[in-house]
Task: structure prediction
Amino acid sequence: MSKTSRSATKSLVRKLLFTVVGMFAFGFAMVPLYDVICDITGLNGKTGDQIVAVQEPTSVGERLITVQFLAQNSAGMDWGFGANDAQVKVHPGEVKVVSYYAKNSHNYVMTGQAIPSVAPNEAAQYLKKLECFCFQEQVLQPGEQVEMGIRFFIDESIPEHITKLTLSYSLFDITDYESSEAAVTLR
Amino acid sequence: MSAAHDDHHHGPAKGITRWLFTTNHKDIGSLYLWFSFAMFLLGGTFAMVIRAELFQPGLQLVEPNFFNQMTTMHGLIMVFGAVMPAFVGLANWMIPMMIGAPDMALPRMNNWSFWILPFAFAMLSSTLLMDGGAPNFGWTFYAPLSTTYAPASVTFFIFAVHIMGASSIMGSINIIATILNMRAPGMTLMKMPLFVWTWLITAYLLIAVMPVLAGVVTMMLFDIHFGTSFFNAAGGGDPVLFQHVFWFFGHPEVYIMILPAFGVVSAIIPTFARKRLFGYDSMVYATASIAFLSFIVWAHHMFTVGMPIAGELFFMYATMLIAVPTGVKVFNWVATMFRGSMTFETPMLFAIAFVVLFTMGGFTGLMLAITPADFQYHDTYFVVAHFHYVLVPGAVFSIMAATYYWLPKWTGYMYDERLGKLHFWLSFVGVNVLFFPQHFLGLAGMPRRIPDYALQFADFNWISSIGGFLFGASQLILLVVVIKCVKGGKKATAQVWEGAQGLEWTVESPAPYHTFTTPPDPKLIHAQ
Amino acid sequence: MLPKAKLWLALTVAAVSMFSTNLQAAWDLNMPQGVTQISRETYDLHMQILWWCVAIGVIVFGVMLWSIINHRKSKGAVSATFHESTKVEIVWTIIPFIILILMAIPATRVLTQAYDSSESDLDIQVIGYQWRWEYRYLRQDSLEEEVSFFSSLSTPREQISNELPKDETYLLEVDNPLVIPINKKVRFLVTSNDVIHAWWVPDFAVKKDAIPGFINEIWAIVEEPGVYRGQCAELCGLEHGFMPIVVHAVPQDEYDAWYAGRQEQAVAAQAMSNSAITRDDAMAQGEAIYNRTCLACHQAGGVGLAPAFPALAGSSVVNGDLTANIELLLNGVPGTAMAAYARQLNPVELASTLTYIRNAFGNSTGDLVQPADVNAILEAQ
Result:
């Protein structure tokens, strides 16, 4: 093999390795990229706004909008979990506080994560959360019951035709059974 | 022109090593075609199990879990094991001969891209014997059914898909390199046979989307074994992301399976109509536009996941647009037949059936593109009928047409025309009895992938199963025809068919082991 | 697979039922027109596109057939030499394009109507489970008694395994149908507990995926009272074919009475849940619940389906400490397919199921589990 063809091979191998690393990284970039797309299009009622805190509103509008609160457990998660208020009426720009409850009835420590979703999905971008229990994992001791708050407001730019929106939380069990005491109790 | 007076080259090696170590495009083409036929029979057997269970309401033969494994394995094996390798086999055999090249550009990689396939499918099929059974989540393997809720064998499925993807990518690189670099002098791009053109475009599609498939199964692998949450809402992921990525692969994949079929039919119809293909240029442009459109329509498989209306409208309009270039192709084929001088040998029969039945699949495709109507059709037997119409009397019929068309060139003997016609008519009747009633089942409300059904679906299921058994059994005739033709028969001439045009018909039949070691006479290259 | 004797029985029943099904079965060829405005418009749209396709098909296949008949070599046809025409190509590119625009206009109109998000009269949360649906009627006020229930397939297993003749509503019947008022806008908020399901009622032209972690909405205004049946439309595992949907659409006053009755039942069930039950009742009710709820995974005779679904026959849990067994049934086993049944079944049903599994399939603990035992553990939690 001549010198030039050897260096050509080297540069080809380098390029190929770079492509492989790039593709692998792109795989991991998918979720944030997808979030950006969801943010723009309101796909799935899942937007970046649903999991990050925003700035306080500055003014309050006239209209009254109904906000419903839903809760459901996902498979394998059997905490008591629900909204304390079925629904509230708010003016756009008005800051409201509502609460959910959660109870771990097991005799071991468990960790839960609530995932929010909004219907209709075009309304998702107008529901702004200042504080939410979904921003953190919830660690509950055996038998512990907690009240968990949400401070939110509706953006004033919400379109006229949306008069009711639904905020739903799905509660997932993210306890690390491999390393926690819970594993000992279970097996 | 032929290798007969070329002393530098020798014939094939003897014994098993000929096949294991071969770098000859014709040998590798044959390996691909035989492998694909074996997979066709295996996937067909699974289909027979499905149709037998659905013959009557109630559970008679198999458990629901095994039924789900059958639907999954049937889909995977037919798509990745039967249809795709068959077209790669045809490409291997025919592309070098059609463009006047001595072999594929990368012969050793060619060997490798074939020989990893049997391992992939052995691994995939072995999951049937594992504890917990084979993958049972459908060939579309939607998360989280295929991640959190999957049987343990899913990891083997993932690696099998990786290997199939690697094989397809290598095959495509080889085809592109061959077509772009090894054309004989005088064989300009716009003089290439359409089969070569459609494969060139298909190969680009494959290179674009097979890494996406590899990516999505790798993300599954990470979710299952390494604690990531790409498709798990609990960790901030999204199950719908899986569907977006999968269908970004999946829709071009559909065209990967049909574009080479367009090329085959565009070769056969002019031959038996004894008339040049109508609108060659527009055929090339139509193929390219279909390939482009295939990248921007993926979400029409997901109209019910809850997209915003703007998304639904965009994907509906884009999908409807595909009807335009597809229509152009069908009109061109009809115009080629119009005022021709037609004869109806087996390849022509299959090609005509392709045009009619594929068009019917296209019509239902158009209906499925209409979003509000799709809310009713989605995930019902109407969809099953639609994609089987484009894939069975579409892709599969074109592969059969190609087999009958080029078989004399491969073996040097004419096949048994009577058996060929029998095979065609039984397949034609069988496939329609099998799939046509499924339109009615879907419209009446039967969901797909169910092992048992309500009583109002009983009659059409019964009819469909009968058609299925007929179609399945008649494929054995093809095996008989091919074996008979390999063994002997009437000697075939170089030209074989009276109306055949193109370089492959200028070499003797059977095609010598090495062809075009010196470039063909440019005068032999005609405009298409 | 079935043992031999059962197979013969199955074949006989199948042969007999084939005749009867042939008589009953309607030869449904087309999409139902349905009972909502959207479903009728969808049907019209479907028919319109179908007729366009038929017309195009007749022309294209007509020309082709005519050529096949007339331009064949055996009739002495000599092939023409034309092989291109830009004019013709342009014509048959533009005409289909115009037809597509004509199709897209009504399609867009119907889709826009279906996406109307004006306020509804009644909201129902629909949750998909492997393999049943839960319906929760959303309240205006959290102090109201909540109406929510699970809706599971009620077709007996013997009909599915061909030991009994099949009913007319085979596989399309549930224990607790969804009840909604007619002429009211009912909004369904669809989500899932585990994998992706899809909630579909053909007569309403309503189909939406139920996705874990996300909520999707869809609505219907049903115009005629009646019983409407649908099925899960997304592959969701083992029993995907066995999770039907049944909706009773009734006049408003009937709905109000039903709703009030449901609220009373919920209160009564709580009060009832401490009274004792007899062994015979427990075994009978337990067997029914087992067949409906547990059989898909744990199989007939409690033999299980290794390795994912353990056997109950001879199981160390089922034959072991009662408290541990109750806790397992109430809380499920995280990370496996074993769901938590504390909410899916009431204490009486839970107790009966436990009594049944601890005394059936050759298990002989002799226990008679009382609702009070279950309640004690529920309260301790």
Summary: The two ends of chain B are 21 Å apart (CA to CA). Chain B touches chain C through 100 residues (CB under 8 Å). Chain B has one domain: 3-524. Residues 63 and 376 of chain B are 28 Å apart (CA to CA).
